[in-house]
Amino acid sequence: MRELAFLTRGVKIQIADERTGKSKEFKYEGGIRSFVQYLNKSKAVLHPDPVYISGEKKQCDDGGIVPVQRLLQ
Predict the structure, then answer these.
(1) Among 10, 53, 9, which Cα is nearest to 31's?
(2) Across the 73 residues of the chain, what is the mean pLDDT of every consecutive 10-residue run?
(3) How confident is the model at residue 4, as a pLDDT?
(4) How many CA atoms, within 13 angstroms, populate the side-chain half-sphere of residue 46?
(5) Which strand (E) or helix (H) includes residue 11?
(6) 33, 52 Cβ separation under 8 angstroms
(7) Max CA distance (Å), the chain
(8) CA neighbours closer than 13 Å in the CB half-sphere of residue 45
């Protein structure tokens, strides 16, 4: 669920185990940028600030807009 929360930037995912009463909440505003920072927090990286590109892509078939994110580490 954590990875899904990274990929769906700004969406809160909450999981609750009703048997034990435990719950966990995942929400990451940074999207894939936050995911790479999470992966790298215990590693020595060459470039601490990854190259991040975001934008929108128009679909050909129905004219809808799709958000696009790219990150280079």
Answers:
(1) 9
(2) 84 94 92 87 84 83 81 83
(3) 87
(4) 3
(5) none
(6) yes
(7) 48
(8) 14
